[in-house]
């Protein structure tokens, strides 16, 4: 284990790297160790130690430096933001005038989609699961909890257009905070559907997920329903006990008792929570068993009822084969897939970064 004691950099020095110039690899090792230490301090609530470690990291990190320096700079900002949330008033005040331009947000999402395979793999798995579960259905309704990227549904339209029995009437409800994003989505999907001669409707819902009004989803009895959640589950799981106890149970995750023909719920989320930042593999975190949920929440709680309303639907062979072939053709050997407890985990080397699961409602 690397020592960070003051004696390394001379008597009384808390920063051993100030006494000499570090090579890139050595500096990177220091940064990794410091980030792990800081994340543990933040997770345990040791804010004074976290503050000291952040000060040490700031001596080495740089948004204009090498790869590890840039990564550390962004992680430092995220860790500091997490600490500030301990004082909600201070956090809101400091962020009240921080405005992210819509064009910047769209550009970042576009780069993430184009440069990394994670979303593409999730789209392949999700679309194939939808196609299989909707076989023979004439009215299909998909609710997208993060309608930011039209590529997934354009690909689905193309697959549905080739169904032997003909395409269904497809309705997609897209949820996003920005109306402009939904407008772009509606235009691109409607254009593709018209080109493929598929009966199609797009229902835009401008809302934060936690403030979602169920009535705006326009769910109808008799239509086959699927819900897609890509990198959105954390926004519900991250709510603290006080706020979650005052919220009404999210209808999308409640027991399927309203005559809805809910076929599938597809989830993709990061495999680690911020509390386990940089260190712990949490592939099992989104496939809880009844034993694991009962130990952390009463049987009558909303969280327990929500989980018990669904059964894990194991991925069939076809979507897994398609996703694995895509990764193999991606041109980078570091990306891998593995299955564990009903999840398909998307990994870099042996570390799980994202996990995808499919769920079906209990009858």
UniProtKB/TrEMBL annotation:
One of its GO terms (biological process) is response to symbiotic fungus. A motif (LXXLL motif) lies at residues 233-237. Residues 109-174 are annotated as: VHIID. It is found in: Nucleus. Keywords: Nucleus, Transcription, Transcription regulation. Coiled coil: none annotated. This is Uncharacterized protein.
């Amino acid at each position: 284990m690397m020592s960070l004691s003051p004696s390394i950099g001379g008597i009384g020095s808390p920063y051993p790297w100030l006494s000499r110039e570090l090579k890139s690899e050595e500096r990177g090792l220091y940064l990794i160790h410091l980030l792990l230490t800081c994340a543990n301090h933040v997770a345990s609530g040791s804010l004074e130690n976290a503050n000291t470690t952040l000060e040490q990291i700031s001596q080495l990190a740089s948004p204009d430096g090498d790869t590890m320096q840039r990564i550390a700079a962004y992680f430092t900002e995220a860790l500091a933001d997490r600490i500030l949330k301990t004082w909600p008033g201070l956090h809101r005040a400091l962020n009240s005038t921080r405005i992210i331009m819509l064009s910047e947000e769209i550009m970042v999402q576009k780069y993430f989609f184009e440069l990394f395979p994670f979303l593409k793999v999730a789209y392949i798995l999700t679309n194939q699961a939808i196609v299989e579960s909707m076989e023979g259905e004439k009215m299909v309704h998909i609710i997208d909890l993060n309608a930011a990227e039209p590529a997934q549904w354009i690909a689905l339209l193309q697959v549905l257009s080739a169904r032997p029995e003909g395409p269904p009437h497809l309705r997609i409800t897209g949820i996003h905070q920005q109306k402009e994003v939904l407008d772009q989505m509606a235009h691109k999907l409607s254009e593709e559907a018209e080109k493929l001669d598929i009966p199609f409707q797009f229902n835009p819902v401008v809302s934060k997920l936690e403030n979602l009004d169920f009535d705006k989803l326009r769910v109808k009895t008799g239509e086959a329903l699927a819900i897609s959640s890509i990198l959105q589950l954390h926004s519900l799981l991250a709510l603290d006990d006080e706020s979650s106890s005052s919220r009404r149970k999210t209808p999308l995750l409640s027991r399927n008792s309203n005559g809805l023909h809910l076929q599938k719920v597809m989830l993709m989320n990061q495999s680690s929570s911020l509390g386990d930042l940089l260190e712990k593999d949490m592939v099992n975190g989104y496939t809880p068993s009844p034993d694991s949920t009962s130990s952390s929440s009463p049987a009558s709680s909303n969280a327990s009822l929500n989980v018990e309303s669904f059964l894990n639907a194991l991925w069939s062979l076809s979507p897994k084969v398609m996703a694995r072939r895509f990764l193999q053709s991606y041109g980078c050997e570091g990306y891998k897939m593995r299955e564990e407890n009903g999840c398909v985990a998307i990994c870099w080397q042996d570390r799980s970064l994202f996990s995808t699961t499919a769920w079906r409602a209990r009858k």
